[in-house]
Amino acid sequence: MEYEAVIGLETHVQLKTCTKMWCGCANEYGADANTNVCPVCLGLPGVLPVPNAEALRLTALTGFLLNCDVPGYAKWDRKNYFYPDNPKNYQLTQLDFPSTITGFVEFELGEELESVRINRAHLEEDVGKSFHFADYSGVDFNRAGVPLLEIVTEPDITSGDMAYEYLNALKSILEYGGVSDCDMEKGQVRCDVNISVRPKGQQELGEKIEIKNMNSFSGVRRAAEYEIARQIEVLEEGGQLVQETRRWDDDAGITDSMRTKEDAHDYRYFPDPDLMPHRPSEEWLATIREEVVELPLARKRRLMEQYELPTGDADVFVGDAALGNYFEEAAKGLNNPKQAANWVINNLQAKLVETETSVVNLKFPAVAIGELIGLVEGGQISSKIAQEVFAEMFASGKSPATIVEEKGLSQVSDSGELEAFCREAIEANPGPADDFRSGKEAALNFLKGQVMKASRGKANPQMVGELLAKILNG
Ligand code: ADP
Ligand code: MG
Ligand code: ZN
Hints:
Layout: E1 3-14, H1 53-65, E2 77-80, E3 90-93, E4 100-109, E5 112-125, E6 129-132, E7 137-140, E8 147-153, H2 160-176, E9 189-199, E10 209-212, H3 217-236, E11 244-249, E12 254-260, E13 270-271, H4 282-289, H5 296-306, H6 311-319, H7 321-331, H8 337-355, H9 367-377, H10 383-396, H11 400-407, H12 415-428, H13 430-437, H14 443-454, H15 461-473
Parallel strand pairs: 10-11
Antiparallel strand pairs: 1-8, 1-9, 2-3, 2-13, 4-5, 5-8, 6-7, 9-10, 11-12
Helix pairs in contact: 2-3, 5-6, 6-7, 7-8, 9-10, 12-14, 12-15, 13-14, 14-15
The structure holds adenosine-5'-diphosphate (ADP), magnesium ion and zinc ion.
Adenosine-5'-diphosphate binds next to strand 1, strand 8 and strand 9.
């Protein structure tokens, strides 16, 4: 029998706020354990939470970025459970009235355009982190109370690859929107994968199994692929799948059972009595709507169309938004923007990597790239000299024209001067000169190379070729 996989992702993303969700403690990575804590985030008796306005703003913004509705009413619920890293013994979340609902994310999967529906993106708070030492354990509560957005998809994903590309798209959308840095190594993105399989064509969904503990997007892909194969094998052998939570073991490349899945009623959800529901006003939402930026995929398509760039170039500029902005600046008013793309990708990017700097720290403005291209096109400098000029621009920030002037790099297009170079080259190399005269056209390139060398790259190569041929034939 043929089977198909059904996958839904629940992705937790840490919001890029200065402070935590309900108190003024810093939302900061890497501080000493239990230094960013206070009575509120430690859940001491008698404290009251105060919502973080910036977290609410970023949540609404995310809603718009993910094509969601942002309803006029959202409320807070307590999810109750006991665990050492959970100081209040409940987690504040949004059960039945989340801040954003029903959207979609579009992305490319190979050549195909895919879309995954978003069920909801709701706000919750993070818990602490347990550490296990040789003979004791400890908990760091610095992360407790940090705002998290849980982004839940509909079960629209059908393969590990698709899950992987969805996650990459989500990450770049959230980075573009300034919502989260999505740094997985800092634990800013965590993802639970829900998987079931069913005979191809069957409407009813199979038994859902949730997988936790992936620490990279490629880990999610591998875990999904493993789990799909495992579930199919169980069914093919006549076995039964039960709803459960499994743990991904990245080293072993397998999942194993953690627990059978608890139901919502196990958590005894109830509305938080300390917090008012959130009723975003139309005006507030309108100002946030204005902040919605061009999404990565839309940008890619625009770059390809507006500047006639190939996919690969557009991908580079979408992947590195600052570099893309720089390219767009440089391409302004150019007839052939592809040339600017070549400079930015082949030369500038390489230099940035080599010197470990970023495009925002550049000493020269983007228009200088256009000027440099103009000098080559106008025949003032050769493309080889342009490389030298570029290196100097990068080092000193001087304009291309100034550099050419100061270093005397102007291309020699004076035929008198060039003729002298050509005659010298012919005299010094009688062999190749004879070869050319007797019909070996390739010998001309050797002579041309000698002239370019003698002129330190400044001779106009086209004129040199013409002059050499004229002298030798004449
Ligand atoms: P729970 O209440 O157990 O968290 P939800 O209905 O909230 O379950 O769904 C959680 C995630 O699991 C969602 O992303 C959803 O799309 C996905 N999902 C639900 N049912 C299935 C299924 N049968 N197979 C795969 N994924 C599923
Ligand atoms: Mg859930
Ligand atoms: Zn605090």
